[in-house]
Amino acid sequence: MAATDTPPPAQRAGFWTALRYKYLPTHMLGEVLAKSWIDTAIPAVLLAVVLAVFAVILPGFFSPASLSPLARVTGEYILLGIGQAVVIIGGGIDLSVGSMFALCNFFALWLMFTLKVPVLLAMVLTIVAGAALGAVNGVLIGYLRLRAFLTTLVTLIIFRSIANLISTNYGARLLGDYAVHGEDILTFMGDGDLFGLPASFIFAIGTSVLFYILLTRMRLGWHIIAVGGSRRSAFSAGINLRRTVFLTYAISGALAGAAAYFYAARLTSAGATTGLGMELIVITGVVLGGISLGGGRGTVTKAVLGILIVMCIYNGMLRMGLESGASSIMLGLILLAAVVFDIRWNKNRHKLLNRAYVSPALVEMPPRVSIERGSASPYARNDRIAETRPIGLGIVDGPEDMILDEDDNLYCGTRTGDVYRFFAPDYTRHEVFAHTGGRPLGFALDRDGSLVVCIAGMGLYRLTMDRQVIPLSTQTNRGLSVIDDSRVRLADDCDIAPDGKIYFSDPTTRYEVSEWLTVALENRGDGRVICYDPATGRSHTAIKGLTFPNGICVTRDGQAILVAETWSARIRKYWIAGPKKGQLEMLIEDLPGYPDNINRSSDGYYWAALVGMRSPAFDLALAMPAFRKKMVDRVAPDSWLYPNALMGCLVKFDADGRIIDVLWDRQGGDHPQITSVREHKGKMYLGGFHNDRVGVFDLPGADPGWSGWNDYWGQK
Amino acid sequence: MIQAIRSLWDDFRGAGAAALSVPSMDGAFRPNQNLEEAPVALACDRPDNVTVAGGRVYLSSGARVLALTGPGTAEVAADGDAPVTAMAGLPDGTLAVARSGAGAVLAVDPQGRGAGRIYGAGMADITAMAFADDGALALAVGSARFRAADWRHDLMHPGQSGSVWLAPLSGAAPQRLAEGLRYAGGIAPAGPGRFVVSETWASRLVTVGQGAPAPVLSGLPAYPWRIAPATGGGCWVAFLAPRNQLIELVLRDRAFRGRMVAELDPEYWIAPMLRPSDQPLDPMLKGVQRVSGSEPKPWGSSLSWGLVARIGADFVPDFSHHSRANGKRHGFTSAAEHDGRLLATSHCGFVVSLPVDQR
């Protein structure tokens, strides 16, 4: 920082900057990174790059004459790769695949050419033989608990020695007679095509599908992943570790047998070098595909992609005329790079995601209205909420909203997912009315006296008076977005229209409820209002693109809903009936603070709780998204600039947006945060997302007979 | 060229000069609630500089100089037009008072050596003063450009125009000891002809005398302000506010800083604060909003803090007194020893008193 670094003249965001922040979908980067398929996308992109590179430097790489033999070999390697992937996902490693491959190759030739076993039966027997060889590994590692690396290294040597012995002594005699039982089938297995694809490749694809289903949909697959992820947890969960580990090696052996059978059919030779160095190619491929050597992470898709990459590179290098030693060096280097990348990626992925996810938007807030004490501003500070009495002090934790029934009992939600009932008249007795499991926020009282409650993380629910928790709406129609926006993420506040339709807010599709202040930092309009229709039981998104829509209140004439857009500090009006139906109007544009829940007042107006006031520093930061982005990147979260959500007030306004009255708590009062205000029979009840109580005070001049339920559903 | 590339790379990586890391409060700066729990010696409006002269405790509050007369009581010793920006006293009762835009005046001088004499009249605001052993008056000027009350502006520009002067008793023109400091918020004698000075925005203490200023204690977790000598050697340092990553970011973001300085009331800047941010328009950090019930958490990140530290004679921090993020007494601007007690002034309206040896 240079000492002469005086601040430059103030500059507003220019045209191009504004355009960039408005239209460049930077938020999608984080959303894409958060997808679970991103791990698979990396090897897929890598494969595309490899193919493109060889297409350029090796003319004719994609010609059928070049691809067909490659695909034939690749089919065999895919089988080996799947076997290796299963072992590695299960927390082990199988170095002996090449040797098993050589033995099985010999076995297959012996069956077909010497014993004249029918070709298809020979295939089955070869696979069984491979499984038996793998079972040797499985018994040693799974049941006798030997180390996977050393054990398979030893079996690599032993199997290889046996293969060498046999091929030296019997190799010449083995193929004395070329007649086999089922010549056509063997030719098809070795050299035949179906739809232009070699038989081994088709078999490998079929096997991939089978193992995809096994790993993702079947008990054994889940057990393998669990054992590889954490042996101790898997053991504690009652999984048979020994058997599971045993099975992974048996599977690897069986697939090596299958691969060897195709090799035997293709080449019908049993040389001493068969399968030599195969484990390097296979392990490189599997790791390159993104299967972690640590176990527990990986899919069949990744294994197949990795094998395809390695086979392309290997084949490309052969065609470029590299010596075989050089190819091995290249493979080794690729394996090293893949292992390093795997470790770094798994370690830093969530960091990258954290940095990329918050994507601040450019927001120019309207000028701030004065709140100065004693000024002529309608929002001038006062101390009119001076005397509050606590309800449930120390019992409730974070009553965001509360509601009172006709018997004056008070219901409120808490952070722990309970809905509490405090009994009238003194509210000293309480009970857990219902347990929801989510985070209960806004309430509404239906015609039949049941509670309709928004539960963050779950959706819109009904609590009947006999304590049933009934889901009403947990999903809406899917829109065009990277993130799955059909799920109701953060149901916040709701209200019921005269026709029974329930309108509720879902403030953001990008964050969970605990990050509601980070949404302010981002200030991107990704919230919506959803309408639930009890007649059809279905929901649809009524309004989109709102900035943290929060409080919802149906107007007295039943023609519109009032929607508080918290982090835009404004209130809008959405017509749900009448001639203007479907129109969205601005009602109050320049609130000095952030409106939360909205409810009706006894004198025909509406109450909004302002959860906090707009601070000049935060308003400026909103106009400078680059600053916010840098802050999220560089500054520890504890020091992030947040909107003020600890000092608010109550605003009474009419259906045309005129401010009627404003009530402030005194400095340092008992309710640092007011997220909800509800009038009931001459009293005002205050809720707060972080508060440890519900506050109540007498409202001078209020109608002592007025209740919310009566106003909505009573005889008028 | 290499420097330019490195600067770009650092900016991209958030390393080097672009790193926002700040020292943590640990070791001698381990937080406690001593300042929050200490008895109040006097409650008054924004006490600023406390000093002792001739056995009496004086403190400045706006344009007035108050003298403590008993527990919780004080009388007005002097009043004036401009805010008092610094004070210094001698055991014989001599008291020097500096006012914004008016230099320093020997307000009380029982020896008759020149009461009413003005030192450094033409200089920018004097932000701290200390008497040398020979009676000469050392003057610290925080900024050549801004008034003492506008220290936030100096931080945000950022200033490097602090200077230290030595005004001989004879009344001759002050002689400059150091310049180019990143603010000079406090000064105290440190041996013959030498002074220890708070180079505030650099978060370090330097000694000045003959020759270039020499850093003696760097990497402080807060912005050092006024310094007072301590019995047994060493000194007490009052700290304005803690360093914070967000402020470091603002200092490095020219565009944001430019608009903030141009458009916002300095009281609401993202800058060190002298009081807890509990007003509706204050900038608020995530850490401050870690609340359960109505109680903020003491360990939250905050733009304001209460901190007075005892620094040993070898300039190694010894121990410190704190008022943490949830405290009500923040912005300690000065401290002084009197009668076995340590008196410290909080901008929030408190003069607190602790035993000198309380740890």
TrEMBL record, chain A:
<feature type="transmembrane region" description="Helical">
    <location>
        <begin position="194"/>
        <end position="215"/>
    </location>
</feature>
<dbReference type="Pfam" id="PF20067">
    <property type="entry name" value="SSL_N"/>
</dbReference>
<keyword id="KW-1003">Cell membrane</keyword>
<feature type="transmembrane region" description="Helical">
    <location>
        <begin position="41"/>
        <end position="62"/>
    </location>
</feature>
<protein>
    <submittedName>
        <fullName>SMP-30/gluconolactonase/LRE family protein</fullName>
    </submittedName>
</protein>
<feature type="transmembrane region" description="Helical">
    <location>
        <begin position="303"/>
        <end position="322"/>
    </location>
</feature>
<feature type="transmembrane region" description="Helical">
    <location>
        <begin position="270"/>
        <end position="291"/>
    </location>
</feature>
<feature type="domain" description="Strictosidine synthase conserved region">
    <location>
        <begin position="492"/>
        <end position="578"/>
    </location>
</feature>
<dbReference type="InterPro" id="IPR001851">
    <property type="entry name" value="ABC_transp_permease"/>
</dbReference>
<feature type="transmembrane region" description="Helical">
    <location>
        <begin position="245"/>
        <end position="264"/>
    </location>
</feature>
<dbReference type="Pfam" id="PF03088">
    <property type="entry name" value="Str_synth"/>
</dbReference>
<feature type="transmembrane region" description="Helical">
    <location>
        <begin position="82"/>
        <end position="113"/>
    </location>
</feature>
<feature type="transmembrane region" description="Helical">
    <location>
        <begin position="328"/>
        <end position="345"/>
    </location>
</feature>
<dbReference type="InterPro" id="IPR018119">
    <property type="entry name" value="Strictosidine_synth_cons-reg"/>
</dbReference>
<feature type="transmembrane region" description="Helical">
    <location>
        <begin position="119"/>
        <end position="141"/>
    </location>
</feature>
<keyword id="KW-1133">Transmembrane helix</keyword>
<keyword id="KW-0812">Transmembrane</keyword>
<keyword id="KW-0472">Membrane</keyword>
<dbReference type="Pfam" id="PF02653">
    <property type="entry name" value="BPD_transp_2"/>
</dbReference>
<dbReference type="InterPro" id="IPR011042">
    <property type="entry name" value="6-blade_b-propeller_TolB-like"/>
</dbReference>
<feature type="transmembrane region" description="Helical">
    <location>
        <begin position="148"/>
        <end position="166"/>
    </location>
</feature>
From TrEMBL, chain B:
<protein>
    <recommendedName>
        <fullName>Strictosidine synthase</fullName>
    </recommendedName>
</protein>
<dbReference type="InterPro" id="IPR011042">
    <property type="entry name" value="6-blade_b-propeller_TolB-like"/>
</dbReference>
